[in-house]
Structures are given as structure tokens and as C-alpha cells.
Amino acid sequence: MLLLSSTVFTGVAEAQQHDPLPERYDFVTRSSRSDLPEPLDEVSGLAFTPDGRLFAHADERAWVHEIDAETGQVGKRFMFGERTARDDFEGLAIVGERFFLVSSRGLLYEAREGQDREEVPYRVTDLELGGGCNAEGLEYHPGWNELLIPCKDTPRDIGAIVIHRIPVSPDVARPAPILVQRSTLAAHGLDYDFHASGIALDPTTGTLILVAAREEAIIEISDEGRVIAGAQLSRRRHPQVEGVAFGPDGTLFLADERNGRAARLTAYRRVEGRWPG
Is the model's pTM score more than 0.85? Predict the structure, then answer.
């Protein structure tokens, strides 16, 4: 059973105008890039703590690594369990001192932050997302006090990307998922197919960002699922983007698994003169 206190949300209401994502960030010229060490060859989830530290995890073991956002160097790491939990981990979210991992099967792992090399106790909740979801990505929405989990796979006849909303309070019923209509992607130069691999909340605009490793694409949506903007990512720079997160200063971080070269962390800073910034 999950139980968290609500957090004040500092995002901007959807009604307020802002420049679309491809204008706020220049995806043609990267700001900086760092190679990640071997333990993060299959980097999957990225998340920042409330005090601005960056953490990441890989796919198969519940090892959470602290990363220097400037250099990509790994500091401490801690493990979920004495015998480290093993699963197909696909997303990381941090709420206060609590760390959440989600597996592709829709199992939610929860633990407190540990010291370096510490094996911390954890618990697991089956979110019952359905066998066809294939969960990929995890984000905390403080305004809703919910965890957001996109499905990588949905039947084509549904015609939508599905993002599950999971309340962290046991007293709140689960809302209906956010549905992003695939038919609206073409207006932004993207294909009908979009297999989500990561999700992040832009704390300044209040919009959601989804990345797709398979299609090498990124989209910005409203909290109701309306597609605001989209962009194709360079395969040379982003051969397999799996993680996405916003830093405290608004820098957008993308993490790519090893795919012919070292895993990497890329930072895009806001374009000057673009709102917000």
C-alpha cells in the first residue's frame, strides 16, 4: 500500500502560453554529452531528488546509481534487497526520500535512499496494468500526487498511447489513463507508431514529455493527452533513448543505452529568449 503526502506543484497551468518543446530546446546542437560507465550500459530510468541530485538505474538489477550530471561519473550506488531484486526495470521516480522502480510487468518497487553499497529493504506492489501494457517509464506528478506510467505497447485498434495514473495515496481511486491519440502525431511530422520508452514532467510548463527509442522521437503533451509538439531525434546522437528528466535549472537530460558505442547522458539547456527560460 502506497502512502505519501502531497507536494506543492510549481508548474504552470496548461492555459498559459509557452513556446513548444522543439523551440525551447535545440535538438540539433547538443549542449553537452557524457559517456556512462559499464554498470549503466543498459541505462533505463533517470530522476532527480528534491535537492537536485541525479540518479539512474539499469535494466536487470535494482541497483540505483547517483550520477554527476556534468561529467556522467557515478558516485554511490545502493541496492534494493540483500539479494538484489532482479526484474526488467523500466523507470525511476523519486518522491521525497522514497525511490520507486517499475518493471515492464507493472510491478512497482519502493525503497528508501541508501548509503553507498547499502542493501535496503523494499516492497513490491502489483499495479495490475494488464499483460499488453509493457510499462516503460515512470514519473511523479506532484500536482496530482500520482505516479505516471506509459505503456510501450498498446493494440493498434486502440489508436492511442496509454499513460496510467497511479495515486500514491491509498484513499484515492485510480483515475482513467491519459490517452494520446496517435492520429494527431502526423501533424507534428511523426509516424502513427510511437513506442514510449520514458516520461518526464516539465516542472515549469506543467506539460509531459515522452520519448520513444524505437522511433527516435520526442513529444510534448498536455496533462489531458493533447499533443502540443513533436520532434525527430538524431539517431547518431540518440541511438536508443530510454531515460528523460529535467534538472533543477530546466536542463533536459536524455539517457541512451549502449548501442554500438558507450551509453551516454546528453544535456540540453534552454534556448535563450524562449519562454520559459
Answer: yes
